[in-house]
Amino acid sequence: MSRVLELFHLIADPPSAVVRRYVVDYALEDRVRFRNVAFEEAEAAWRELGGHTTPALWDGVHLHQGAEAVLARLQAVVNLGRDF
Question: Are 70 and 57 in contact (CB under 8 A)?
Fold first, then answer.
């Protein structure tokens, strides 16, 4: 059973939109939990993990920040089936 990845994002942020579209296009919705940092609880969790850039993806070990890093991590999930 796979753990759920956490995607920290902002709705109005274009790079976040690119990553959200990737999640949908590759049917990863069951493996990626969307966390909108506009909400206090999500922002606090993101900041606690060292967040400073959206989008950011927490894989349980590392916080991948910026669209390029997040997409690379998600591609590993799609191409290699590697959640962690």
Answer: yes
**How, if at all, do strands 5-9 and 32-36 pair?**
parallel
- pLDDT bin (cut points 50, 70, 90) of residue 83 is low
Question: How many Å apart are CA 79 and CA 45, to the nearest integer?
Answer: 28
Q: In one letter, which amino acid is 22?
A: Y
Check if the beta carbon of residue 16 is closer than 8 Å to that of residue 51: no
What is residue 1's predicted lDDT score, i.e. its pLDDT?
38
Q: Please check the confidence at residue 29 and state whether its pLDDT lies above 70.
A: yes
Question: Cα(12)–Cα(37) distance, rounded to whole angstroms?
Answer: 11
Residue linked to tokens 């579209």? 21
Using alpha carbons only, how large is the chain's radius of gyration in Å? Answer: 12
Q: pTM (2 decimals)?
A: 0.91
Find out whether 12 and 62 touch, Cβ atoms under 8 Å.
Answer: no
